[in-house]
Amino acid sequence: MRIDVLKSKIHIVTVTEANLYYVGSITIDEMLMEAANLIENEKVQVLNINNGERFETYVIKGQRDSGVICLNGPAARKVVVGDQVVVISYASMDFEEAKTFKPTVIFPDKNNKI
C-alpha cells in the first residue's frame, strides 16, 4: 500500500506579488525552495492564513535571496499582497517507508528569509 505524506513545508511566508495575467503557478525564492526541498514544477498546496483559501498549483523558481512569493494566474485572485501563506508538498510512498520518513519543514522570518 502507498500513502501520501507531508514531504516539504514552508511555514508562513508573506505574499510579495500577485500577477493575474501570468500563465499560472507560485514563484518562490530559490533559496527557500532549496531549504524546503522543493523543485521547479513540483505540485504544491497553498494555504492562505488570512482568508482560509486552499489551492493547488506548481512551483516556479524565483530569484535567489529575493524573498519573492508571487501567486500567478488565477491563483492571484486567492491572495492579496501581504497575506501570509503556508506552502506544502506531499510525496507518495510505501506505508512502511512513510513510518520513518522525516519531512523538511522551514520557518522563514517576516522578510521571507531563512
3D structure, described in words:
The chain has 114 residues and is mainly β. It has one domain (2-99): Barwin-like endoglucanases. 11% of the residues lie in helices and 47% in strands. It has 2 helices and 8 strands, in the order E-E-E-H-E-E-E-E-H-E. It has helices spanning 30-36, 95-100, and strands spanning 2-14, 17-19, 25-29, 43-48, 54-62, 69-72, 84-94, 104-106. An 8-stranded mixed beta sheet has the order 2-6-3-5-4-7-1-8. The N and C termini lie far apart (36 Å). The model has no long low-confidence stretch (mean pLDDT 97).
Rg over CA atoms, rounded to whole Å, is 14 Å
Order of helical and strand elements: EEEHEEEEHE
Query: How many independent structural domains?
Result: 1
Just give the CATH class: Mainly Beta
| CATH topology (fold) name | Barwin-like endoglucanases
Describe the largest sheet. 8 strands, mixed
Proportion of strand residues: over 45%
**Physical arrangement of strands within the biggest beta sheet:** 2-6-3-5-4-7-1-8
Q: What is the count of β-strands?
A: 8
Looking at the structure, what is the overall shape?
Answer: globular
pLDDT below 50 for ≥5 consecutive residues: which ranges? none
- Please, how many helices? 2
Helix/sheet category: mainly beta
Q: What do the pLDDT scores average to?
A: 97
CATH architecture: Beta Barrel
Q: N-to-C terminal Cα separation, in Å?
A: 36 Å
Please bin the fraction of helical residues: 10-25%
Quick rundown:
This protein is mainly beta and 114 residues long. It has helices at residues 30-36, 95-100; strands spanning 2-14, 17-19, 25-29, 43-48, 54-62, 69-72, 84-94, 104-106.
